[in-house]
Design goal:
By secondary structure, this protein is α/β, with parallel strands linked by helices. It is built from 18 helices and 28 strands. The strands form five sheets. Strands 11, 12, 13, 14, 15, 16, 17, 18, 19, 20 and 21 form an eleven-stranded mixed β-sheet that branches. The chain has a six-stranded parallel β-sheet with strand order 5-4-3-2-1-9. The longest helix has 26 residues. The structure holds alpha-D-galactopyranose (GLA) and zinc ion.
Length: about 700
């Protein structure tokens, strides 16, 4: 463990294994704390996250800090080779704070203010909350900033994660929103134009008239709602930055937050810029969805998204060893699934496997949530054995994995602002669940073993040969120009129905689709398939069912690859292809099912040189994810089926753990993750 922090490395230097640890709940049970250390060693745990909700123990009354117990715990962990990711405790406020200062409690969109209780619910604008946060965070930094066991800072917990109470509508937030708008627009004329406020008499004549969208006020002005969402994300980020500044006062340890995949209220692409490492909390619905592969695909998307935020490895900050306590059905992970699902995160770029939680709490709302250690059995459980086995495996893999990261040359566009605007458009289908319509575009990449980055409209497109942009309803900034340059320069671009409709103010484009020249089409209308009328798309010899959305477009230079079979737009293009500069642009007009998207993805990955580097075809439920490094690649071959699966390797590899040569046809056992490497072979080939 000695070298985990030699000098001041910005990031952990080995694979981490551990999780949220709450000794603060057991301070009067020394035998439990002793047992924790013994069991952590047996489970190959090398790090814990401490103090996440410990505010009332760390500062029992305003201004009186009690850190001695924490220091003792951290010292003891460190002496036993276990490092600490130390949290700031703002995830849950103590009574003295919520009861004394009403303003720290959020006001919801019905105008109701919270009282004490639950968590993730402070007002990010409250001066008192800012002040008390700065005080405790700075004190923690002073006391622990140079502790040899400190690995990183974990700011707060799942910022904003409180369902209906995510945004705060209190007077402080209203004032900040108005300031934010003044800064963005400068003049009311600009604001009125951007919001198209002549509609329904919404013209604003003084900044004071502006109010956040609330149920008893304005809820339909798209420009206002979009700006409010931007503000809510930025205001919480401002709070997070203040916490980061405070912990950095006396410490240079890296700063992270635990994110929640595509969590709607916070634009994580913006957030990631302020953090040293990004982390993810992941609780897939294993065994409880109709299609058993859905949870695997969703988890793959979330990990790809989080990794792509910084294009660096991330930490899997939270996951569960078996069952959570909050899914509609809290089914246990079947034997083997824990190891597979944890290695899935590593495959997609995680440099850790961490759990919520180390030990089940005795009381409180999560006493039945899965943990490494249960209420009664110590190490003598299936879960503990599986965790310990995985820990050992991670130790063995650490050196190789830490030298690698995923470096895909294909990207899919997922943009927070686009999603906010699309879901608020009041058109096509109401309500529109953006993610539901978007996910089918990700799935074929997973099925075909092609790793992708997830990018938003601000990300550079350099370095990619394929960019897929489903439901790009809003084009922000210079996105259209950059796509044009990307295709001109030789890239393959694929976009779809419900794209290029509005600009960044949510104002409709006039004249033509901003990429009509690149796509070689004119867009006219969009239909939602009548419920009692089937339609099909004919593409070569195949026919595919039409789901909901049917854009009606006219070719203007593009080649028509597929067309509608029926209805008044029979014969109109359903899929077009257009050469532009040195590249190619596709437009999918029809929303078809998985088979259509599978065939489309096969076509464009082949054309752009992005096919799976290990296998030319994969059986259902098996995928490959590649982490690249200077010495070659690691291939994570994962079988999400409860049955064995036969796979044919396209090249000879070595098993990264045993060193055995692996070639040709192999069989994966149920839920197996096999890790192969081709580094040595690649090296010697280059030397020749
Ligand atoms: C979230 C929180 C944890 C815990 C888990 C339970 O991820 O961050 O504190 O509540 O959920 O699954
Ligand atoms: Zn507020």
């Amino acid at each position: 463990m000695e070298n985990i922090r030699s000098g001041k490395p910005p990031l952990p230097t080995r694979l981490l294994h551990g999780g949220d640890y709450n000794p603060d709940q057991w301070l009067d049970c020394p035998e439990v704390l002793e047992e924790d250390i013994v069991l952590m060693k047996k489970a190959h745990v090398n790090c814990v996250s401490l103090g996440i909700f410990a505010w009332s123990r760390l500062e029992p009354e305003e201004g009186r800090f009690d850190f001695d117990w924490l220091e003792k715990i951290m010292d003891n962990l460190y002496e036993n080779g276990i490092y600490t990711i130390l949290a700031t405790p703002t995830g849950a406020m103590p009574h003295w704070l919520t009861d004394t200062y009403e303003e720290v409690n959020k006001v919801n969109k019905e105008g109701k203010r919270r009282i004490h209780g639950q968590r993730h619910n402070f007002c990010p604008s409250s001066p008192v909350m800012r002040e008390r946060t700065r005080a405790i965070d700075t004190a923690l930094s002073r006391r622990f900033g140079h502790h040899p066991g400190l690995l990183a800072w974990h700011l707060s917990n799942e910022y904003g994660g409180d369902g209906d109470w995510t945004d705060c509508h209190c007077p402080h937030c209203q004032a900040n929103f108005r300031k934010w708008l003044q800064n963005r627009y400068g003049t009311l004329d600009n604001l009125n134009h951007a919001w198209w406020s002549g509609f329904w008499s919404n013209v604003v004549t003084s900044w004071e008239q502006i109010h956040s969208p609330v149920t008893y006020g304005e809820m339909t002005l798209h420009g206002l709602k979009l700006d409010w969402k931007r503000f809510v994300s930025e205001q919480m980020l401002d709070f997070c930055k203040a916490e980061a500044d405070a912990v950095r006062t006396y410490s240079d340890a890296p700063v992270t937050i635990n994110m929640m995949g595509p969590f709607d209220p916070l634009n994580y692409f913006q957030w990631a810029k302020e953090l040293d490492i990004v982390s993810e909390d992941s609780y897939p619905f294993w065994h409880s969805q109709e299609d058993p592969l859905d949870p695997a695909v969703m988890a793959a998307f979330r990990y790809s998204l989080i990794r792509s935020l910084k294009k660096q490895p991330f930490l899997l900050m939270e996951s569960v060893t078996s069952a959570v306590n909050w899914h509609p059905r809290c089914t246990l992970k079947r034997p083997g699934v824990h190891e597979l699902s944890s290695l899935q995160a590593v495959a997609h770029g995680s440099n850790s496997v961490q759990y919520f939680q180390w030990r089940k709490s005795r009381g409180g709302s999560e006493k039945f949530h899965g943990a490494v250690v249960d209420h009664r059995n110590g190490e003598n459980t299936r879960v503990f054995r599986e965790v310990a086995h995985l820990g050992q495996r991670l130790e063995g893999l650490s050196d190789k994995v830490m030298k690698t990261c995923n470096r895909p040359r294909a990207a899919i566009v997922f943009d927070w602002e686009n999603r906010w605007a699309a879901e608020d458009a009041q058109a096509i289908v109401n309500p529109l669940n953006f993610l539901e319509k978007w996910m089918p575009w990700f799935r074929p990449f997973w099925e075909q073993g092609v790793d992708v980055d997830i990018v938003d409209m601000d990300c550079g497109l350099e370095g990619y040969s394929l960019v897929v942009a489903p439901l790009n309803y809003m084009y922000r900034g210079d996105y259209a120009q950059r796509v044009r340059a990307f295709v001109e320069g030789g890239g393959t671009y694929v976009t779809s129905y419900w794209s290029g409709e509005v600009d960044e103010h949510d104002l409709c484009f006039l004249g033509h689709h901003p990429l009509s020249d690149v796509l070689g089409i004119r867009t006219e209308d969009i239909d939602v398939r009548p419920v009692n009328m089937e339609n099909e798309v004919i593409w070569g010899k195949k026919r595919y069912p039409v789901m909901d959305l049917c854009a009606i477009v006219h070719p203007e230079g593009a080649q028509v690859l597929a067309e509608y079979a029926r209805d008044f737009y029979a014969g109109f293009p359903a899929l077009t292809r257009h050469s532009f500069g040195r590249g190619t642009a596709y437009f999918a007009a029809a929303e078809c099912g998985g088979e259509f998207l599978g065939d489309l993805v096969k076509l464009v990955t082949e054309e752009s040189g992005n096919t799976c580097a290990l296998c030319s075809a994969l059986p259902r439920g098996v995928t490959v994810t590649e982490r690249k490094g200077g010495e070659g690649s690691l291939f994570f071959l994962q079988n999400f089926n409860p049955e064995p699966a036969a796979v044919i390797l396209g090249k000879a590899c070595l098993d990264a753990e045993t060193g055995d040569t692996v070639t040709g046809a192999i069989t994966l056992t149920p839920y197996e993750c096999r890790i192969l490497e081709n580094g040595k072979e690649g090296e010697s080939a280059r030397e020749k």
